[in-house]
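Ticket opened by: R.M.
Priority: normal
Category: complex prediction / small molecule

The reporter submitted a protein together with heme C and asked that the result be attached to this ticket for the collaborator who will pick it up next week. Submitted input follows.
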Amino acid sequence: MKKMIQVLTVGMFVSIFSVAASAGIQPSLRGDNPLDKGEQGIAVKKPLTVKGGIERSFKKQPPMIPHGIEKDRITLKGNTCMKCHSAENAKKEKAPEIGESHYLDRDGNKLAKPSSRRWFCNQCHAPQVDAQPLVELDYQPQK
Ligand code: HEC
Ligand code: HEC
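Result attached by the on-call engineer:
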């Protein structure tokens, strides 16, 4: 029995590797740098700034962040995104106010203040960099 499991395990590894090789797996984020050469560090790319925002790929998609957020901080007590995106500040800062869904509690009731479920903005909204995907994508936007 033990022998059989050993054979099966080896077989599994061999097939995983041959599948990976035949699929021409893309290099990883570490590039062609061999494992035994140690880490080279990842190049930090500049965040994209896109005037007018980034087109959504499907209805109800949390829109991508069209600006850098390196200086923003979200903690239990403070959220610098709201300096521009809250109802009070949006007009003045010429920023879009947080979406309507941000005022709903989990039962769908409208609240006077933004829901705590939407406090950690980058749980759903992500900034973008000018980077090519590691693997080819054939996803088509759903309108
Ligand atoms: C200094 C003001 C400011 C701060 C701080 C700020 N934003 Fe923005 N944000 C803007 C402005 C202005 C736009 C509109 C840009 C445009 O459309 O050209 C915008 C656009 C966005 C959009 C796109 C909305 C859409 O409908 O496409 C998202 C999402 C967003 N911001 C999220 C965030 C998050 C999350 C943070 C904090 C991590 C943040 N922003 C901090 C000013 C700000
Ligand atoms: C749980 C996911 C989630 C979180 C957390 C979240 N958002 Fe959103 N956001 C969405 C979705 C989904 C939409 C699109 C639907 C809508 O407009 O309500 C959206 C829309 C937006 C928009 C565009 C509104 C418009 O009318 O075009 C802005 C700006 C925004 N969010 C900012 C923020 C900020 C700032 C925070 C943090 C305080 C935040 N969001 C937290 C999911 C989220």
